[in-house]
Design goal:
about 240 residues; alpha/beta; Purple Acid Phosphatase, chain A, domain 2; 6-stranded mixed sheet; 12 strands; globular
Length: about 240
């Protein structure tokens, strides 16, 4: 089975369209949350995700906040401003879709969460010791996470007590081994100094995981952000992937 793995779209419709086209024909799509927040086209993104066949989607912290599940005062002022805009602009149908999404799913022997197995909504896995702790909070061999907007590979060899940790090479493929936590990166707002949209292809029968990057029209998205009068920083950061 060929599975498209996407995360952290953040209302960037141009990036999402580019990724879906580049990914080609797939058997399933697994979305790791944060469809909304920051970007200028939340309805278009949610509707496109809703239209995908064989979709498995979980919610992220921005999805939860926009639907009233988290107090938006917990976010920084710029993120809060975009969330208020999204709340006022999202259709009732799209808000219901986001609200009804689960926080955690197990599918085909894989655990899907947005943040971490220990805290599916909020926790970032940005350090090896955080990754190591989180192996105690899921039972499958593979866990896929998002939230940090940074592609990452972690593998835990319990017999030897060794943890592998590090970013993948864009365009590289790995064969799954031991127990692993993997982050495919962000479609709509990368934060690893690479402005290209990040996603992954998981070929289940071969246990192969491919990390992909694809350029999209950043300038067009920036113009849409400014036209919507969303925070300037949300447009600026797309250039450098920060």
């Amino acid at each position: 089975m060929r599975v498209l793995i996407i995360s952290d779209i953040h209302a960037n419709f141009d990036a999402l369209q580019t990724v879906l086209k580049d990914g080609g024909d797939v058997d399933q799509t697994w979305c790791l949350g944060d469809l909304v927040g920051y970007g200028p086209q939340p309805n278009e993104c949610v509707e496109l995700i809703r239209s995908l066949e064989n979709l498995i989607c979980i919610k992220g912290n921005h999805d939860l906040a926009v639907t009233g599940g988290i107090d938006i005062s917990l976010f920084n002022n710029e993120a809060k401003e975009s969330m208020l805009w999204h709340q006022n602009n999202l259709s009732k149908e799209n808000i219901k879709f986001l609200k009804d999404l689960p926080e955690k799913v197990e599918v085909n022997g894989v655990t899907l969460v947005h943040g971490s197995p220990r805290n599916p909504i909020w926790e970032y896995i940005l350090e090896p010791y955080i990754a190591r702790i989180n192996y105690e909070y899921f039972k499958t061999d593979l866990c896929l996470v998002g939230h940090s907007h940074q592609p990452m590979i972690s593998a835990w060899n319990a017999e030897e007590g060794v943890l592998e940790w590090g970013p993948p090479v864009p365009g590289s493929s790995i064969t799954l081994h031991n127990r692993m936590i993997i982050n495919p990166g962000s479609v709509g707002q990368p934060r690893d100094s690479d402005p290209r949209a990040a996603y992954a292809i998981y070929t289940t029968g071969l246990h192969r995981f491919e990390f992909r990057r694809i350029a999209y029209d950043v300038g067009a998205v920036q113009k849409k952000i400014l036209k919507a009068e969303l925070p300037l920083r949300h447009a600026q950061r797309l250039n450098g992937g920060w």
